[in-house]
Write a structure and sequence with these properties.
With about 90 residues, this protein is an alpha+beta fold. The chain has one domain (about 5-90): Transcriptional Co-activator pc4, Chain A. The chain has 1 helix and 6 strands. A hairpin with a 2-residue loop joins β4 (about 45-55) and β5 (about 55-60). The longest helix has 20 residues, at about 70-90. It starts with a strand and ends with a helix.
């Protein structure tokens, strides 16, 4: 499991939080969706942009990740499955 740090805003404060990557999938050219678990147990779903800088990939997480608990993650999964099923019906 990959570990990474992210800076989060809480009110007027910026805090650093540790995340453990659970899964990552490519959703576009140089764009990923990353599911991570934070050290407090919350689950984060974030967009990640991979930008080349001096020939090396730099991972940038886009602001406003979705943060849920395990039940919320299951709800998202079910919603995505329903959306895929409706697309197949067309």
């Amino acid at each position: 499991m990959k570990k990474h740090l992210r800076y989060l805003r809480k009110g007027n404060k910026t805090i650093m939080s540790k995340f453990k990557e659970l899964a990552k999938g490519e959703i576009g050219e140089n764009k990923n969706i990353v599911v991570s678990i934070r050290d407090d147990g919350n689950i984060s779903i974030a967009q990640q942009v991979v930008a080349p800088v001096n020939g090396k990939p730099i991972n940038i997480f886009i602001k406003n990740a979705i943060e849920v608990d395990e039940a919320g993650l299951n709800s998202i999964i079910n919603t995505l499955v329903q959306a895929c099923e409706k697309l197949k019906e067309k």
